[in-house]
Amino acid sequence: MNQLFDLIGNTPLVDLSDLQENPRIKLYGKLEGQNPGGSVKDRAALSMIRGAMERGELAGGKRIVEATSGNTGIALAMIAAKYRIPITLIMPDNSTEERVKSMRVYGAEVILTAADRTIEYSRELAQEMEDSGDYVQLNQFSNDDNWRAHYRSTGPEIWRDTEGKITHFVSSMGTTGTITGTGRYLHEQSAEVKIVGVQPTDGSSIPGIRRWSPEFLPAIYDPTQVDIKIDVSEVEATTTMHRLASEMGLFAGTSSGGATAAALRLARDLDSGLIVCIICDRGDRYLSTL
User: Fold this and answer.
1) Which of 33, 117, 133, 209 is most buried when burial is the number of CB atoms within 10 A of its CB?
2) Annotated catalytic residue: which of 26, 30, 39, 41?
3) Which parts of the sequence bind pyridoxal 5'-phosphate (predicted)?
4) Per the annotation, where are the binding residues for pyridoxal 5'-phosphate?
5) Which one is catalytic: 69, 122, 255, 256?
6) Would you state the pLDDT for residue 165?
7) How far, in Å, CA of 267 to CA of 37, rounded?
């Protein structure tokens, strides 16, 4: 009988090739919404909490504090509930109602900060709370346990399930843990695999995809693991999210739409290849925005 954490990872690939017209291109989406917490962030959250526990950072009933745009917070709340660890999550107040309620139903305290100050202020507040001495910040943006989760699981799964035939891996860039860890593993298997990072165009607001100011660029980001960057607009991400639902029967979030849009643009420029993009979560946590 599986325990909850046994269900994190080993997510399936689904064929999305019908979204594009080149018969020499195979396009697959890795369905991270199949994780028990509903997103790719389950992997990193489990890795970071276990790492903190192993290092004794949470001894004595210490409370976790973490800034999040949504999916990491839900994953952390789920895992903290299972381990009976108190947790406070900080996020901008324009976060979807579904995300906030999901965290609270797991028992997390949620602090909402002004949306116009962005997630960067949420990160500053989390740091201030940790500096008070009463909290432990996992800091997904500088925590090596984040990218290591994908080096240990996401990368090997993709290599295995494509039988080593993958030519391009496409991932939206937020904390950059997914692309850094998966990219490092795939590059070690073959220098020919191209790692593609997806960023928002200037002025676009896409949940889960960020273009960081230099002082807030995640410390775990390794630019040597990203071969190509593709900028995607908010309209393009949203339109492709709707295409995934209406044409493929796959309801995912906006960042998944962004990654798929980038993969489709890439497919138009290639003669042949096998592309895998991350479908990072389920779409039900965005219903109030549609």
Assistant:
1) 209
2) 41
3) 71, 174-178, 255
4) 71, 174-178, 255
5) 255
6) 98
7) 31
C-beta neighbour count of 290 within 10 angstroms: 10
Q: Which pLDDT belongs to residue 164? A: 98
Instruction: Give the number of other Cβ atoms within 10 Å of residue 87's Cβ.
Output: 25
Q: Under a CB-based contact definition with an 8 Å cutoff, are residues 68 and 76 in contact?
A: yes
Tokens of 239: 């339109």
Residue 96: predicted pLDDT:
84
Within this chain, domains 4-36+154-279 and 41-137 share the same CATH topology: yes
pLDDT at 133: 85
Say what the pLDDT of residue 249 is: 97
Rg over alpha carbons for the chain, rounded to the nearest Å, is: 18
10-residue stretch averages of pLDDT, the chain, 290 residues long: 91 97 96 97 97 94 91 96 97 89 96 90 93 91 96 98 98 95 98 97 85 86 95 96 97 95 96 97 84
Under CATH, which number does the domain 4-36+154-279 receive? 3.40.50.1100
| Active-site residue, 62 included | no
Distance CA 199, CA 208 (A): 10
Residue recorded with tokens 């992997």: 43
Domains of the chain: which residue ranges? Answer: 4-36+154-279, 41-137
Count of other CB atoms within 10 angstroms of residue 262:
29
Q: How many residues does the chain have?
A: 290
One-letter amino acid for residue 245 of the chain: A
- Is-catalytic flag, 95? no
pLDDT of 60: 85
Q: Considering the domain delimited by 41-137, tell me its CATH architecture.
A: 3-Layer(aba) Sandwich (3.40)
